[in-house]
Amino acid sequence: MNYFLHIVILLEIYIILALSLNMKVGFTGLLSIAQAIFYGIGAYVTAIFMVELGSPFLLAIVISIVVSVFFSLFIAFIASRLRDLYFALATMAFQIILYAIIYNWTSLTNGPYGIAGIPQPEILGVAFDNLSSFALLGFVFMVLTILFLLWFQKTPFSRLLESTRDDELAVIAMGKNPKYYKRFSVCISGALAAIAGSLYATYVTYIDPSSFTIDESILIMSIVIIGGTGNIWGPVSGALFYILLPEVLKFIDIPDSIAASLRMIIYGFVLILIIRIKPDGFFGKYVFK
Amino acid sequence: MEDLLIIENLSKAYNGLQVLQEISFSVEKNSIIALTGENSTGKTTLFNLINGFDSHDNGNIIFDGKNISQWGAIARSRAGIGRLFQNSRVFKNMRVLDILLASCFDNPGERILNYFVNPASIKSFEKTSRNKAAEVLNYLRLLDKSQDFGGSLSHGEKKLLSLGMLMMNNYKLILLDEPFAGLNAKMIDKISDTLSDLARNGQTFIIIEHNIEKVSSISNQVLILKEGRIIENNKINNANNLIN
Lengths: 289, 244
Ligand SMILES: Nc1ncnc2c1ncn2[C@@H]1O[C@H](COP(=O)(O)OP(=O)(O)OP(=O)(O)O)[C@@H](O)[C@H]1O
Ligand SMILES: [Mg+2]
Fold this sequence. Notes:
The complex is a heterodimer.
Chain A (H helix, E strand, L loop, with lengths): L1 H27 L6 H18 L4 H25 L2 H21 L1 H4 L12 E2 L2 E2 L3 H22 L3 H11 L1 H6 L4 H27 L9 H14 L5 H17 L6 H22 L12
Antiparallel strand pairs in A: 1-2
Chain B lengths: L2 E12 L2 E12 L3 E6 L5 H9 L6 E6 L2 E2 L5 H7 L1 E4 L11 H7 L9 H6 L1 H21 L15 H13 L5 E5 L7 H16 L3 E5 L3 H7 L2 E6 L2 E7 L9
Parallel strand pairs in B: 3-8, 3-9, 6-7, 7-8
Antiparallel strand pairs in B: 1-2, 1-4, 4-5, 9-10
The structure holds adenosine-5'-triphosphate (ATP) and magnesium ion.
């Protein structure tokens, strides 16, 4: 049961994370390879505020969001200058630089040793200090995220994000500024990733930089691509697939020593298959060229 | 008649290649100007300069009484310069209806603040623009495609839809870059009819078209461009033009 709840919590966190990246990739066509950094900013800001300053969980989440949105503006700046592959490469550089800062700014982040003893969330006197209550908290955040996006994708605003994704020049010719829409999309994306990071930090109670590497960013991207971009169920199905795949593999009798590698091999294989056979992912709406 | 657009001594060079040289002409309100000339004589470039996609080296562009030479493309579009591209720029992964709705000017739903302070304005704008979009789709005979993706439309349907996007706003001047190219006779008639209707309602056009006979039959002024210069500027008095 405990193990099952652990999987559920991971799933909730990864669904929020995949949806956060989909805001950039799916809605606005920004192929950003730095999502782990915003996840990390959420986790670190939450950890630092709760451990060092004794701030309550909800306040820590709000501050995480603010900080993450602030750093998202760098991505918006890159997006207003560079396109496609150049944009992706620049976000990769951003990921590497911020990772190096987190890793080396030991007085703030404790560097490679990480931050331990992060308190578990408490909201209005209710402590979410065991697996089942935390799973419930994660579920609430996940559902709120999904509801927000379901509402958002029906708004006139979301249409303009999609137009920007499909053809920026045509948006300009319609008298609208694509930079504005990109800025908005990266900020929402950063905010959602920060929420996932806050949940992660207070769930595992110990964080170090290894959870927020460029590998993690690529992984989040692959989850979105496998599931499909541009709508909500694509990223959700991608996260389900990524988290549940190792569980399914457990039913096959393979030695532990190769299980982890086999998981990545199968995962990579599916990624290739998806790109070959169903480039819009399991449930995607939008094909990335 | 009042001049809607005045082009004065416009020049443009790309990497030393002089594409346009001292172009001057003016466009009266409610007129249809045909712009013709061989390939690579700078017709599309002239459109890029007029709608602000590119900046000119010398000269002035006066639109609706204002010197817009320094304005960006967004401001020029909002001032009333619309454009139909040589290769249609229809949003591929959006549905036809959404594409039309996205093209509306001044949608309160484009400002985040309005979702908090004035959600009613968003709702009512959405309602009016949906009605308008349905009208436009009906007029263009695209109503049955309203839920199709832009990318799935045929070449001709994309041109029609691009016209529809322009019809969602009241542009003062519409630049049409080869609206008939690559279309079958039936589609050409359909687009001609649409343009005639718009012209009869007072819409001003500049149309790029290779076929001189075709353009003289639909316009009341023909400009011929050669090697970046205007070599002929003829007003036609035939009652046989687009406005008929
Ligand atoms: N952005 C640019 N950079 C460099 N050269 C350009 C650019 N835009 C246009 N040119 C050059 O300017 C010349 C005129 O091009 P333009 O597209 O305006 O011709 P056109 O009259 O529209 O031709 P067509 O009838 O084939 O559409 C061409 O030689 C083209 O290569
Ligand atoms: Mg051309």
